[in-house]
Amino acid sequence: MEFSELIKNINRATERSELATARRYIEENVILLKQKKHLLNHNAREILDFIVSRQQSGYHNLSKKEHAIIRAINLYAERFDIRGIKMVTKEMPDLLMEREALNLLTSDSITLLQSIGLIKKEAYQEQI
User: Over its length of 128 residues, how does the chain's per-residue pLDDT go in tens digits?
Assistant: First the structure.
């Protein structure tokens, strides 16, 4: 995709309130767009500023696989399946250290993860 087409697509998506589409385009081209920020409309610039500030504060976007693991943890917690939670978290134990991942966990998941020692209550409170 050419740069001018990218700018048109982002601006069009924000005008139509398709913010997820605009965000995806911006995230994929954030370095280039930071240099040419003046070509974006107001809403697109706000999304770009939001993404840049999140990146600078240490957030990173979770992959589809990480989202799937979080969904599985939440599902197992709903069913009170501790063995399933342990099995899923064994694959990516560092995922539970990510602030973004902790924000997606349900209260049931957080309680179970704390009770089996996979996250500490103090660490969770610091992340939030």
Answer: 788 899 999 999 999 999 889 988 998 888 899 898 889 999 999 999 998 988 888 777 788 899 999 999 999 999 999 999 999 988 888 888 888 888 899 998 999 999 988 887 765 555 55
Which of 46, 55, 65, 50 lies closest to 99 in space, CA to CA? 55
CB 21 within 8 A of CB 13: yes
Residues 6+ apart with CB under 8 A from 81: none
d(CA 17, CA 88): 36
Give the distance, in angstroms, between the CA of residue 82 and the centroid of all CA atoms in the same chain: 25
Q: Which residues, other chains included, contact 12 with Cβ-Cβ below 8 Å and sequence gap of 6+?
A: none
CB-CB contact of 24 with 60 (8 Å): no
DSSP-assigned letter for residue 27:
H
Residue for token pair 């809403």: 43
The string of pLDDT tens digits covering residues 36-49 is 888 999 999 999 99
